[in-house]
Design a protein that fits this description.
The protein is built from 2 helices and 12 strands, in the order E-E-E-E-E-E-E-E-H-E-E-E-E-H. With about 180 residues, the chain is mainly β. The termini are far apart.
Length: about 180
Amino acid sequence: MINLEKGQRINVELQKFSIGLGWDTNQSDTGQDFDLDASAFILGENKKILNDEYFVFYNNLKSPDGSVEHTGDNLTGEGDGDDESIRIDLSTINPRAAEICFVVTIHKADERHQNFGQVHNSFIRIYNTDTGEEIAKYELEEDFSVETAVEFGRLYKRSGTWKFEAMGIGCKQGLEFFLKKYN
């Protein structure tokens, strides 16, 4: 297993695997549950989403080609391990796809006065879906004091090979920001 650092890239050898995303929250900060949401944006060479169905999130759990499948929305982040998972099957991905960006946003962040400064132990990991073997993990160690969304990582294709990059880029925006960015 490889522990990744921000900006580090690795080749992804498997065709089928899962992306696990996890986090813990400080419940006492706002008095309300945190609802963090993982999303995947399947992009073409132009860094734009192939079409609306290639935005995979809690209201669209599967891409039309079946290559990206969200396993469901975790409304509280309770418990250890992955809070949300996204299954990947590169053997069925649309040939126009060049990148998959993984973003985590805080649902109703402004309304609930929540941000990633109140979130800790955040990570993204790649693991073999069948065996559970962890291939790589990136733990976000930065203090995102005001950010309400974080681009955790991305899969991208270069010269026919899929690679993963640990990103950890935060912003004070919501899901709408990414929809505009990638449309």
